[in-house]
Amino acid sequence: MADSSQPGSPGLESGSALTSTSGTKPVEAEAQAGARTLMLVMATAGFAINFWAWALLSPLAPAFKESLGLSHFQQAMVVAVPVIVGSVGRIPVGALTDRYGGRLMFPAVSLLTIIPVMYLGLLGQDSLASLLIGGFFLGIGGTAFAIGIPFVNGWFPPERRGFALGLFGVGMGGTAIAALTTVNVAKAWGDWAPFAMTALALLVYSVLAAVLLREPLGHTPSSGSLSKRLAATMKLRVTWYAAALYAVVFGGYVAFSVYLVAYLETAYGLARADAAFRMAGFVVVAVALRPVGGWLSDRMGPGRVLIAVFFVVAVCATVQAFTPSLMPVGTVAFLTMAGALGAGCGATFCLVAVLSPEGKVGAVSGFVGAAGGLGGFVPPLIMGATYGIFGTFAIGLGLLVAVAVGLAIFTMTKVRRALAEHSVGVGIPAAGTS
Questions:
Q1: How much is the average pLDDT of 245-270?
Q2: Average of pLDDT values for 258-274?
Q3: What residues have CB less than 8 Å from 389, skipping those under 6 apart?
């Protein structure tokens, strides 16, 4: 390893803005910090606005069901298609970001998302077929997540990436914007209005992104064909390790966001409005704890944080399997689980930042993000099926306990070993990585 203390060494040159005490260097360091903050804000805004667009159909699905006479399955398809496309689409978009950078990909994806948004607002609400076509291309908005991870990762030093990526992850709250505004705006100004409002937000963001975004210093585009880079990414163990973890932590967040209203209505007899309010609390806690998980991972290592997360989820699910009184035990159990899942999301992408080879963060993030999005589909199906057969949610929650304990053991063995090997390889004491 080169000695960065030697004159003219790469280490001194790259770190001089932060370490020199000469009159000009503190100003350069301050400018660099300001640029990092601006890039993080822009990336998070792009994530949130694209996710807002991605989630537009879900709040309107009951109205489409009534106006078009859709079955329950057809209604579910309207909601599911953009989610599936947005999740799977993160795989190629992540790899393309490694090649072309976030400065190009953020405005490109945002502009492309305007097309299905306006189609759905003006032409696409008259039939199931048009909704499915529009929803398919609306999935483009859901791929923005895989752009922001490598972009933010490149702007921040290793010791701050967990927190920065956690803050970026707050952009997943864009789905809450859709949930809170879409129906009210449609009632006030017409069915086209929420789509037009979102398209305008996407357009404004695209212009600002094209003007303001910059690639981090030292950014080197990846080379080779897309298929070869994706094949190489699939051979990395970090891809599969992080995908398994994220399928549960983010998949669990998505699953409860989708299913918690039905669960509370069935298990506790709550009114739909009351159940929806409590679901919103679950989402807020999970979103708020995501940067905390990243921050803790920077200091303790992602391994330790993830182990704690899975044990907390296991304990909370065990408690909830007995359907305790909602106040306070059930509420505490669900909100604690929400916080753990949110923190686990932040810790997982700290793990991605630590273990991914240079130039492959986007590709790895694409696979991991896809696993998280798709992971949200399985738990509601299991919960509904087991309740329909046995008349209790305890079995579904018991399966969550088993999965969480299994992943805690997996993290204590396989993941920690990978972190230790990586630390040895880069000259960091292994004790500080997990």
A1: 87
A2: 84
A3: none
Instruction: Indicate the pTM of the whole model.
Output: 0.80
Rounded Cα gap, residues 336 and 341, in angstroms: 9
CB 162 within 8 A of CB 353: yes
Q: Which residue has the higher pLDDT, 347 or 159?
A: 347
Name the residue with higher pLDDT: 147 or 25.
Answer: 147
What is the sign, positive or negative, of the torsion defined by CA atoms of 46, 343, 393, 180?
negative
Go through 285-300 and write b for each residue having 16 or more CB atoms within 10 A of its CB, e for each that does not.
bbbebbbbbbbbbbeb
Locate tokens 């003219």: which residue?
A: 8
Stretch (H or E) spanning 85: helix 72-88
Burial of 112 (0-12, 13-18, 19+ CB in 10 A): middle
Mean residue pLDDT across the chain: 87
Amino acid at 9: S
SS3 call for 247: helix
Mean pLDDT of 245-266: 86
For 183, the token pair is 């129906």
CB 338 within 8 A of CB 286: yes
Per the model's pLDDT, the better-predicted residue between 115 and 14 turns out to be 115
The answer to whether 376 touches 250, Cβ cutoff 8 Å, is yes
Residue type, 341: L
- Residue 149 · residue 40 · CB < 8 Å: no
Residue 374, C-beta contacts closer than 8 angstroms, at least 6 positions apart: 84, 87, 88, 247, 251
